[in-house]
């Protein structure tokens, strides 16, 4: 029987990493090969018109290479500043419990249809910063796939105009 990712596949931790945040842990998904495969399958684009998969630091890195392999396309990474060398594009992202400086190596992005994979869509700050960097790098199009979307936060609103998929919404 094929497994579909649901809220029950996550462990939750209240007040982590700061008070008021309910953290959804993906460890149970990663620990079970059926759940992990289901998550990767659920993250696949509805339409296979993708030339490059981009994983977002850090949990997007777990799923992006598997999806890229399944699509037979390359993969790139968006990292936190200071984690990657070279001539990089930079963007600031405001997230639900702080801020982050992100970087992207623009090589190989121009003209590509890009699928961005991350674990959670919350405020949309990270995703919006990633989209902006990808457009500056010359991406032909950008779409997003998240393991989870927190509907009470404005993530989807900040990504208006983009194709956004979430495996689970809470």
List segments where confidence is low: pLDDT < 50 over at least 5 consecutive residues.
none
Helix/strand class: alpha/beta
CATH class: Alpha Beta
Total domain modules: 1
How far the N terminus sits from the C terminus, by CA atoms, comes to 25 Å
Written overview of the protein:
With 170 residues, the chain is α/β, with parallel strands linked by helices. The chain has a single domain (46-169), classed as Rossmann fold, CATH 3.40.50.2020. The model has no long low-confidence stretch (mean pLDDT 93). The chain is built from 5 helices and 9 strands, in the order E-E-H-H-E-H-E-E-E-E-H-E-H-E. It has helices spanning 27-31, 33-43, 60-71, 125-136, 155-158; strands at 11-14, 22-25, 52-56, 74-80, 89-95, 98-104, 113-121, 141-149, 163-169. Strand 8, helix 5 and strand 9 (163-169) form a beta-alpha-beta unit. The radius of gyration is 15 Å and the shape is globular.
């Amino acid at each position: 029987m094929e497994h579909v990712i649901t809220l029950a596949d996550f462990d939750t931790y209240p007040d982590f990493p700061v008070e008021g945040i309910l953290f959804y842990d993906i460890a149970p998904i990663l620990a079970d090969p059926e759940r992990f495969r289901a998550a990767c399958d659920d993250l696949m684009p509805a339409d296979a018109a993708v030339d490059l998969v981009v994983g977002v630091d850090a949990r997007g890195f777990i799923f992006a290479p598997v999806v890229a392999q399944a699509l037979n396309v390359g993969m790139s990474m968006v990292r936190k500043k200071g984690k990657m060398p070279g001539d990089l594009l930079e963007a600031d992202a405001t997230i639900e419990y702080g801020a982050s400086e992100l970087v992207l190596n623009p090589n190989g992005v121009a003209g590509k249809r890009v699928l961005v994979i991350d674990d959670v869509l919350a405020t949309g700050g990270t995703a919006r910063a990633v989209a902006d960097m990808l457009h500056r790098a010359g991406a032909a199009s950008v779409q997003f796939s998240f393991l989870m979307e927190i509907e009470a936060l404005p993530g989807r609103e900040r990504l208006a105009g983009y194709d956004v998929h979430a495996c689970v919404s809470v």
